[in-house]
Amino acid sequence: MIFLSNKPDETCFYINQTTKVRVHKLTKEGIEVTTRSKVNKLGFIPYSNLTSTANLYDGKGLYVYYLGYNERYLYFSEEGTMVFQDVLQTTIH
Predict the structure, then answer these.
(1) Using an 8 Å Cβ cutoff, are 32 and 56 in contact?
(2) Is 67 helix (H, G, I), strand (E, B) or coil?
(3) What is the four-CA torsion angle of 9, 50, 28, 33, rounded to 10 degrees?
(4) How far apart are CA 23 and CA 59, in angstroms?
């Protein structure tokens, strides 16, 4: 079961909210994605937070869970993957 936070953060996303993103760029660590948020930041999905790396290309749409943000990125996990809170905190901070 997925629980949403009680209120949105500065990005206007709720933690664990489902949203759609578009692939912007593939990197060594994961993929940069674009989304519509109030802050003008790229999103990021580590490869470990993807169900598959096959058929990734610029502009491809993915449904994801919002995990949080830092000064560089908004962080997401593709629907169907499991993210552990201790790993998430290490990634974001």
Answers:
(1) no
(2) strand
(3) -40
(4) 5
